[in-house]
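Much of the work behind modern protein science is quiet bookkeeping, done one molecule at a time. Below is the pair of lines this work produces for a single protein:

***
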Amino acid sequence: MAKFLEFEDVEEAAASYPETFFIPGMTERQSQKVGDSVRLHFLLQDVGPDEPRAERIWVTITQVEGARGTYKGTLKTAPVFFRELKIDDEVAFEPRHIARTIIKKGDPRWIDSSELRALVSNMCLEKGNGVRFLYREEPDRSEDSGWRMFSGNEPEGYCDNASNIRLMNVAYMLDRDPTLLEPLKAGAGAVFEREKLGDAWQKVTDWEPAGD
């Protein structure tokens, strides 16, 4: 049986693996309230051959100590791989340990695609660049949001090369650019564009993806 070592610093993990490790934005992690639930990664030591390096456990916040400071919370799922803690035990942690939050339906920030993936042009991820054109089609797999995001400056044939397109977490793209929130609330068939970063999004009604 493994032993609990410490909480994973998810900020460091996200910085090391930006394309595969996604966390809520800093503002989100610093603004949790009593009663909110967050997921922490409990790093383990002395792990066996069939045990993970970390166990993911949901914790309900019971105390917030100082603005943007530390939290206390109780475990709401029982550890499987270590015995030091059990359901309802209290732990103290910081925003840098929060790997996932829950935004409930009805919250103005809620979107149905948050935990799903989008196809994103590499040009959207370049320094000084961003998303200027996006549309949503019917998804073709369970983890697909249907969202397709582009800088609007891709040359002809650019998107035909699969290496120029990445599969990105929708919540990660929203963390990078909070102005995407309103477009991301739309359903399949929606199309939005803007001329420059910072401009208001405009709904497009006279464009459809090729082949539709």
About this structure: The chain has two domains: 3-101, 117-203. The chain is about 10% helix and 30% strand. Residues 45 and 74 are 22 Å apart (CA to CA). The first strand starts at residue 3 and ends at 7.
